[in-house]
Give the backbone structure.
Amino acid sequence: MPFSSLNFDIKESHKLSISPFDRGFLFGDAVYEMILSINGRCIFLNDHLARLKKSLDSIKLNLNFKEKNLVDEIKRISNLNDNPFQAIYIQISRGVQLARNHLPEENLSPTVFITSFKINNPSDRQKGISALLKEDERWLKANIKSTSLLANVLSKIEADSEGHEEVILHKDGFLNEGAVSNLFLFINDDLHTPSLDANILPGVTRGKLIQSAEADNINVIQRIIHISEIDDAQEVFMSSTTKGVIPVVKIIGSDFDTDHPGDLTSRLREIYLREIYQA
Ligand code: PLP
């Protein structure tokens, strides 16, 4: 039976309930994190906590508890749910407000929800995905890990309905990221990825992969990338906490079409897998 925590009270997940007046429910006035847990160890926990803090600061949400309490609760949930591979989900909303108003009342008590989802072993064989090039219709603050994800949800539905796993979002001719992942291209053996001034989430996996690639003497270039550059890419992959390196073999709306994941992508994936097992 899975266990979850609501406001630091742990119960079996199906026994939890939340007020419909929660601002997360009414306005999407909430931020979240997703952390990979392998055999009870939370991988890159400090990087996720640092990004959570940035998201909270960006929406001016002040916590009324210590970070240590949050960390202890995350570890408790990770240990109670004894799946070897879990995604630990943390959501913090601005709290419950009975009089619906866009303007938050002062001194609300944030709602803190932590749960765990069983996931596949990130080292399971990856045969490569197909992705759909699509106009980015999201808001302009994709750097905040907000729960307001309607545009991402609609993009995933569209991709899925056409038999693809992910979208590659672009705006004004330039590439951003996927609906649930960051984007990388190998061009002339160099690794290119949209820079953080594109409208993207600063992915924890993205940051770790840049470090791993540089340590492996791969030249990494973070820059604004034109959509047409996909046509000439040697290899393309996407990245996320739960799936690690995700090779892309076909991109609908471009000339990029290969039979199988490329060698450079596979090598970086192996390096990354070693790192998460050792972290
Ligand atoms: N970009 C978006 C829009 C995402 O939703 C995610 C993950 O959920 C990522 C990128 C990858 O971020 P991370 O590597 O921190 O999981």
